[in-house]
Design goal:
178 residues; alpha/beta; 5-stranded parallel sheet
Length: 178
């Protein structure tokens, strides 16, 4: 009987050690307004439900985190060209569908304002206030020629690799890819 109790205690400890956190880990791959809005609405909604939220921005998603007012120092020519071709900041991102040369984007923004839907900038500000952590993929930054000195000011902004995302995802109850 004592052996069975010890075995049960060992199993309980093992289960407790592998228990996932009430945490959301999300990869933000897209740099399109509608997808970024969805990601930030989910992130702020999850924090409202007392979940810890960690966002991993990579590839095209990084464009939204570039500060339009900041200039990067000492970039090589290909990085300058790549940076010039990509949107810089939330105000330059487009829709994934029905952008129609910017007409669809203008219609969506007008509709959002009319219906009091928070803008992407407002959602980013709220996310920062709620403690949403933003992790930026350093490899993607390097590939796209972005530097840390051109990224937005955000209270929970970190630079890391995919290993950090995988560790976060492993201990999260919810993982999403946008």
């Amino acid at each position: 009987m004592e052996e069975k109790i010890l075995e049960l205690e060992r199993r309980i400890k093992q289960l407790e050690a592998t228990k996932k956190k009430d945490q959301l880990s999300m990869v933000i791959f897209s740099g399109e307004l509608d997808k970024l809005l969805a990601a930030m609405i989910i992130a702020t909604g999850a924090t409202a439900m007392d979940m810890e939220v960690k966002l991993f921005f990579t590839f095209w998603g990084l464009s939204a985190l570039r500060d339009k007012k900041k200039r990067a120092q000492k970039k090589e020519l290909t990085s300058k060209m790549f940076g010039a071709m990509l949107p810089k900041g939330t105000s330059e991102v487009k829709l994934s569908k029905m952008n129609m040369g910017g007409a669809g984007l203008a219609m969506l923004k007008s509709l959002m304002k009319k219906k009091n839907v928070a803008s992407l900038d407002d959602l980013l500000k709220t996310a920062g206030e709620l403690g949403v952590e933003i992790n930026i993929c350093e490899m993607s930054m390097g590939l796209m020629g972005f530097s840390k000195d051109e990224m937005i000011d955000y209270p929970g902004l970190n630079y890391c690799g995919v290993g950090t995302y995988l560790a976060d995802a492993e201990e999260s109850t919810v993982q999403l890819f946008i």
